[in-house]
Amino acid sequence: MSKIRVLAVDDEPYLLDLTKIFLENDPMILVDLAGSGQEALTLVGTTFYDCLISDYQMPSMDGLELLKNLRTSGWDVPFILFTGKGREDVAVNALNLGASFYLQKGGGVEAQFTELANMVRRSAEIYRSKRELEESENRFRNLLQQSSDFILIIDPEGFINYCSSSVKRIVGRSDEEMLGKNVFDLIHPEDVGEMKLRLERVKRNESRGDPVEFRMMMANGECSPMEAVGSNMMDVPSVEGLVITVRPITERKKAENDLRESEEAYRTLFEKSPFPIALCTLDGIFVDVNEKHLQITGTRKEDIIGKGAVELGYVGPEDFQAISEAFLRGEGVIDQHPLEIKSPDGKVLKMLLSSRLIRYRGEPHIINVLNDVTDLISAQKALELKNEELNEERNRLQMITDQSPGVVYQLFLKDDVPRFIFVSKGAELFVDVPTDRWLNDPSWMFDRMLPEERAQFLEAMRTSERSGQMCRHEFRLRDFDGTVRWILNTSSMSQRKDGGTVWTGTLTDITERKRREEAVKQVNRQLSLVSSITHHDCLNKIVATEGYIDLAASIIEDDATIDLLDKAQRSIEAIRSEMDLTHDLQELSGYDAQWVRIRDAIPEMISQHPVRMPEAFHRLEVFSNPMLSKVFMNLVDNSMRHGGHATDLWIECAEDPGGLTIAFNDNGVGIPSADKERIFDRGYGKNTGLGLFLVREVLKFTNISIVENGSEGQGARFELKVPPGSYRFTDLQ
Q1: CA angle 288, 289, 292 (to 5 degrees)
Q2: DSSP secondary structure letters along 386-435
Q3: CA-CA distance, 121 to 326, in Å (whole number)?
Q4: Are 532 and 444 in contact (CB under 8 A)?
Q5: Would you say 469 and 503 are in contact if contact means Cβ atoms under 8 Å apart?
Q6: What pLDDT sits at residue 607?
Q7: Which long-range contacts (CB under 8 A, 24 or more apart) does 333-340 make?
Q8: DSSP string spanning 237-248?
């Protein structure tokens, strides 16, 4: 028991000291002192006391006023009035205000303080017992309020005389609402009969605390599963009723249902699993196996249950010992332990065994799962051989790319943000930039492009991506010393699942080629100028000569002379044709190849016979000489001049691994087999024969070939073969 803490209040210091000395002779009493009522009020506000002793007559505040203040503020600690005042009315007032004892000063000191000590002990004992009782009642009340159960006391007819307050939280009705109700009115009608039988057993004291389940009607109209236990306390005076403890079991019922469903699910998983599964005792005796296990082993369940793996011949004694030791080392766990089992047809199956220690029907068991990896191992061996071949091929490709004079690369492009993911060793020789910088910081290349060509580089890739064709783009790159070099980028695209694209290609330094081309262009420009002047001057002289011949023919009547003049006229016409061809060829050499929209190159001059073409043709672009329009003009003119009864002109196109075939067709008389190649020779034909010769020369400029594959009598068919990378389909209209 803890010490009794006392506060003594008196305006006489020597009496306070005396009180402290006598009371603390008892080792269980500890005394604090206060010289006035105000000081006492301050102390009781900060310190807990089991008892307060106060004098009556004190200045400012007497003992009764102190007691009144304490009781008004709710302070219920025992109060002993210890005073020399002997009036009876003081004692009565003190007791009326809630004083525990009244003791008058005087008489023998030892006897007086002995009596005071007894009062202190008795009042403190009573006060502590009262507090313990109140605390016990509060704990019990809180326990009932917070309990997951609620308690009913009912009479023999089932009417409720008491209900714990926790019913509000569980049922939704307050304890006041429950009082006076018949408990059977709150039970589901289907459960009332059983509950009445159980209540009769409780009345006869035949119930041994056996719980009963039923459904109770909740305040919201729903039914909730409950469990009740009853006892007969009719003979207990403070109870006089049947005490029913009711507990909600919704969660338990849900858990039971979940457990049942879980067991059903695991049983289904066990039976339907694509893996062989076996349940064994700790000494390896089979308890259960699934259907897949029976298929693998080729046995019946009744031939397996109750036997061991060694007895059945699944594994040898040494293998079983190794598995057992592995199981013990793994503390009840085996993962992917290799195992060989013979199938019914004698084939050796490669298995991986995984085992776990589980509890089955309250006893430890082992669950074994087999994974048939026979085919996987075979496939793995084949894959290893294939990987070796791929590694050899990769090494060969690496040697090729490393020895390439340019750069072989792979560039990942997403949201116009480029990143090199591979570059060949030639990258360091191509420019003075280490390979790791190519991979980690591709911005260096775009920073060294001429500003006006950066956007063109990405646009060329976007255009190629839309068309699905190879990208072929030239751009200029500035070295660290300021020198500008021409670079040819040739690449093809593959799409990635994340929305980005991977470009695989080469970068080739074409600076020297561009210089040679520029030199050739300069020479061609000079030759073109000379040719233009010569062509112009010669044509003027030819026109004059033809005029003189016409004048001479008009005044000469000699047939022989006229025949000679006619021959001279035909010779001049041949010279004019040769000069036209020379001029066309000179003009051809003066143009750079570029992307030409085919639909813009088809002539529309033959309105009575328009050229039909597929829809895809409107999106087709070909990398060719800008004079490509003259190709189709000559083909149309050839059909009109030499096709005889040609009334329909149409174009077809088809892709294959060798490139794109563009076929120009008519329904005319066709071309004899013997003439299919000669028609492209210079000087062949009904006129000058220069048209188809010029067509082939224009197409040769960008490696486009042309052949005639029509059928005589059914029409002509000129097929243009465009190599890969020299054509594309765009989304532009």
Answers
A1: 165
A2: HHHHHHHHHHHHHHHHHT-SSEEEEEEEETTEEEEEEE-THHHHHSS--H
A3: 73
A4: no
A5: no
A6: 43
A7: 333/357, 336/371, 339/315, 339/370
A8: TTT-EEEEEEEE
Assigned token pair, 77: 């600690």
Strands 51-54 and 79-83: parallel
Q: CA-to-CA distance for 19 and 7, rounded, in angstroms?
A: 10
- The SS3 assignment for 301 reads helix
Q: Give the ranges where 499-558 is alpha helix by DSSP (H).
A: 511-555
| Contact in structure between 87 and 60 (CB atoms under 8 Å) | no
Q: Is 494 helix (H, G, I), strand (E, B) or coil?
A: strand
- Are 54 and 63 within 8 A, CB to CB? yes
Give how far Cα 464 sits from Cα of 343, 469, 492, Å.
57, 5, 8
Encoded amino acid at 287, one letter: V
Closest to 464 measured CA to CA, from 732, 721, 730, 724: 730
**Neighbour-count burial for 617-652, b at 16+ CB within 10 Å, e otherwise:** bebbbbbbbbbbbbbbbbbbbbbbebbeebeebebe
Distance of alpha carbon 424 from the chain centroid: 34
The two three-digit tokens of residue 480, written as one number? 């660290």
pLDDT in tens, 449-488: 887 777 788 788 777 777 777 788 888 888 777 778 888 8
Type of residue numbered 71: R
Q: Can you tell me the distance from the alpha carbon of 159 to that of 299, in angstroms, rounded to the nearest whole number?
A: 66
Q: How far is C-alpha 488 from the chain's CA centre?
A: 40
CB 101 within 8 A of CB 88: no
Mean pLDDT by 10 residues, the chain (733 residues): 86 86 88 90 88 88 88 86 72 81 77 86 84 65 59 88 83 85 90 88 79 88 87 80 85 78 76 84 86 81 84 76 73 76 73 82 82 78 76 66 72 78 74 76 77 79 76 80 81 76 82 73 57 61 70 76 74 65 56 79 62 83 81 83 82 89 90 86 58 80 88 90 87 58
CATH number of this structure's domain 147-255: 3.30.450.20
**CATH top-level class of 4-143:** alpha beta
Contact criterion met (CB below 8 Å) for 673 and 712: yes
CATH number belonging to the domain at 273-372, selected among 3.30.450.20, 3.20.20.80, 3.40.50.2300, 3.40.1280.10: 3.30.450.20
The secondary structure of 638-691 as a DSSP string is HHHHHSSS---EEEEEEEETTEEEEEEEE-SS---GGGTTGGGSTT-SSS-S-H
CA distance 581 to 693: 9
Q: In the CATH hierarchy, which top-level class contains the domain 592-729?
A: alpha beta
